[in-house]
Amino acid sequence: MQMYPKLATAVAISMLVSTAALAQTQTASDKGQWQASKLIHMNVYNAQNEKIGDIKELMLDKNGKVNTVAIGVGGFLGMGERDVAVKFDQLKWSNDPPKSASSAAGTTTGSAQSQANRDRNYPDHAVLDATKDQLKAMPQFDYNK
């Protein structure tokens, strides 16, 4: 009869240890992941901090890896915009907001804001080494291919 309390104690301890290990594993693996829904409609800037478009769609390969990004370019107030495709690895990601004229003049955001930006599970914006004219000259992305 005394074996049952020892067995119950051993089972309870092993459950607590495995639950803690599972929680640590999920937290550690989630750290390097982004919410894909937050990337949709994200602004895309060039190296000169000019907005050149926004992300319209993430195209996955059959293994679930993002391969291509459709970026909406051109147009005004939603009219005349068209989508072009770039490879996902052509985009660079920034956690800090793009520099505006006021921040270039010396106004900076606080370190608390910068830390909050880094703690999000998505970046602030994407950067692509291209101009508006280069993107406008690209062929329209065909979602059916």
Individual helix count: 5
Q: Rg to the nearest angstrom?
A: 23 Å
Beta-strand content estimate: 15-25%
Oligomer: single chain
CATH domain topology of the largest domain: SH3 type barrels
Main sheet: which strands, in order across? 4-3-2-1-6-5
Question: How many angstroms does the end-to-end distance come to?
Answer: 69 Å
Explain what the structure shows.
By secondary structure, the protein is an alpha+beta fold. The protein has five helices and six strands; from the N terminus they run ααβββββααβα. The protein starts with a helix and ends in an 8-residue tail after the last helix. 12% of the residues are buried.
What's the helix and strand layout?
Elements (H helix, E strand, L loop, with lengths): L2 H28 L5 H4 L3 E3 L5 E10 L5 E8 L8 E6 L3 E4 L6 H4 L6 H9 L5 E4 L3 H6 L8
Parallel strand pairs: 1-6
Antiparallel strand pairs: 1-2, 2-3, 3-4, 5-6
In short:
The chain is an alpha+beta fold.
